[in-house]
Write a structure and sequence with these properties.
The chain has 399 residues and is of the alpha/beta class. The protein has helices at residues 24-33, 48-57, 75-88, 108-120, 176-182, 206-219, 266-277, 291-300, 311-321, 339-344, 356-361, 374-386; strands at residues 2-3, 18-19, 22-23, 42-45, 60-63, 95-99, 125-132, 137-139, 145-147, 164-175, 190-194, 238-242, 253-254, 260-261, 282-286, 303-306, 329-333, 347-350, 364-365. It is globular and about 75 Å long.
């Protein structure tokens, strides 16, 4: 059971945010499907887009009623509701695995071990946790401090202290009958499934989302990452891109006469051509004023605005002039001067090597770096979302 409502306040539609090219809900579904003892994966949601994503990932979707979708509704209530819906369709379970999509690095092997503990009868509940030797303190109303898990007067060495266990929130494996009776995830004999500290990240804030994306780039080879999909691509009427760091690798060759040259990618150019043929226009925005930007835009046969101190006011004016709403714009950026545009458009995209703040602001992150096929990757995604037949993505030679 994966509860995944759409009403997150800290990060709106958090469960659709992507880490390593896959949405959080897809990552959770795929981790469960890869866990051998799990027979069926169910996502409980109140959101249509999350439902579509979960179904596409291979999960059964149960629509959560409004009274179980508010900020005060517990995850337990969603799981209990889903269990009731399944029972009415003739499906019952001995063991319930409650998984939270906000934990992006769920190890199917650790999950399987926890399921097997409950199946064997070793415990009624097994939850994911990581060992901690941290000294914890509690601040009181008078600003005084009290040590919680240690005597402040005795500073024992790490190796001399038994670890405490920090709940990661990733998964809870429960005997179904006991859970329905207790109506809470902790009951009976409770045990812990030790997970690596690097797997223990839970996403509640934009900073944690940025950290997860950075970790995914290091942990998950590009060849094994699932390609991101633009589920809202059919609503995109315009593709806007930065130039330096998106069409290029953000480097320039400087001649002794001051002339600048950059390296661009032929695959990117072909992707733009395919978009143009599909009727989707493109606009290049650049802070710099440089003839090379104009030359590239002319060759791609796309509009170009450059020499912009503030990109968003210029883009807003251009959109007004062409009667295009920001919600219908996909924007690809790589650095902090793209942030304001990314915050206003409907489909914010970051290239793989973008600044961490840009990655945190993006709905989609490409697998390719700027100048290394990122524009072609976005073009293929948009074409797929528009229902156009895009050629198989490939790595184009620099040009």
């Amino acid at each position: 059971m994966i509860p995944a409502r759409g009403g997150s306040k800290g990060i709106p539609l958090k469960n659709l945010e992507e880490v390593g090219g896959r949405s959080l809900v897809r990552r959770a579904v795929e981790s469960c499907l890869a866990c051998e003892p799990i027979a069926s994966v169910v996502v409980s949601t109140d959101d249509d887009a999350i439902g579509r994503e979960a179904s596409a990932a291979g999960a059964r979707v149960i629509r959560r009623p409004a009274e179980l979708s508010g900020d005060d509704a517990s995850s337990e209530s969603a799981v209990l509701h889903a269990m009731g819906e399944l029972r009415e369709s003739g499906i019952d379970a001995d063991v319930i695995v409650f998984v939270q999509a906000t934990s992006p690095f769920i190890d199917p092997v650790a999950l399987a071990s926890a399921v097997e503990q409950v199946q064997r009868g070793d415990a009624d509940v097994v939850f994911a946790a990581t060992a901690s030797h941290e000294f914890l303190w509690r601040r009181h109303a008078d600003d005084s401090m009290t040590g919680l898990n240690h005597d402040p007067c005795v500073r024992a060495r790490r190796q001399d202290r038994e670890p405490d266990w920090r709940e990661t929130g990733a998964f809870y494996v429960m005997r179904a009958e006991g859970f329905e009776s207790a109506r809470h995830r902790f009951f009976g004999r409770v045990s812990v499934a030790a997970v690596d500290e690097q797997d223990a990240l839970e996403i509640d804030t934009p900073d944690q989302l940025a950290l997860a994306r950075a970790l995914a780039q290091d942990r998950e080879p590009v060849a094994t990452r699932a390609s991101p999909r633009l589920s809202d691509g059919a609503d995109v009427r315009l593709l806007v891109t930065d130039f330096d760091g998106v069409h290029t690798n953000d480097r320039a060759l400087l001649a002794d006469d001051g002339t600048e040259m950059v390296i661009v990618n032929r695959a990117d150019g072909h992707g733009v051509k395919l978009l143009r043929q599909a009727g989707l226009p493109m606009l290049i925005l650049s802070t710099e004023t440089n003839p090379v930007v104009s030359r590239r835009a002319d060759k791609l046969r796309v509009a170009c605005l450059q020499g912009l101190h503030d990109k968003w006011p210029a883009l807003r004016s251009w959109l007004d002039e062409h009667a295009i709403e920001p919600a219908a714009v996909a924007y690809v950026g790589n650095d902090v001067n793209d942030l304001e545009c990314l915050q206003h458009v409907g489909t914010p995209i970051a290239v793989a090597d973008a600044h961490p703040l840009v990655i945190a602001a993006a709905r989609h992150v490409t697998r390719s770096a700027g100048g290394d096929g990122a524009v072609r990757e976005v073009a293929d995604l948009l074409l797929a979302a528009l229902g156009e037949a895009a050629p198989v993505p490939h790595q184009g030679a620099p040009s």
